[in-house]
Amino acid sequence: MKKTFKLERLDCANCAAKMETAISAIDGVISARVNFMMQRLTIEADESVFDEVLKKAEKAIARVEPDCRISF
Q1: What are 14-61's pLDDT values in tens digits?
Q2: What separation in angstroms does the CA of 32 have from each of 27, 35?
Q3: What pLDDT score does 72 carry?
Q4: Would you call 39 helix, strand, or coil by DSSP?
Q5: Whole-model pTM?
Q6: Signed CA dihedral, 63, 22, 15, 50: sign only
Q7: Which are the contacts of 34, defined by CB distance < 8 A and separation ≥ 6?
Q8: Are 24 and 38 in contact (CB under 8 A)?
Q9: What is the CA 40 to chain-centroid distance, rounded?
C-alpha cells in the first residue's frame, strides 16, 4: 500500500532528508519519500502494518522537527 500525505510546517530541506532516512528505517516500510518543495510524504508499506508504520513515522517526524505534522 502506498499513500501520500501533506506535511504542515516543514521548514528545512535538511530536516526533510533526515525524516526520510528515519522513516525508511522503520520496520515494515518498503519505501519513504519526503518532498520538501511539495511538502509531501509518501510511504509504501504492507497494508497489514500500515497504521503502525504511520504512527512511528509521526514520532520520527516530531523528533526531527517538532512543529511539523502529517495532515490527513
Answers
A1: 999 999 999 999 999 999 999 999 999 999 999 999 999 999 999 999
A2: 12, 10
A3: 81
A4: coil
A5: 0.94
A6: negative
A7: 7, 10, 16, 17, 19, 20, 23, 40, 41
A8: no
A9: 8
Q: Is 20 helix (H, G, I), strand (E, B) or coil?
A: helix
Structure-block grid coordinates of residue 19? 525524516
* Amino acid symbol at 56: K
Residues forming beta bridges with residue 31, ordered by sequence position: 44
Assign 4 a pLDDT band (cuts: 50, 70, 90): very high
pLDDT at residue 34 in the model: 98
* The amino acid at 33: R
**Contact partners, residue 71, CB within 8 Å, separation at least 6:** 5, 6, 7, 8
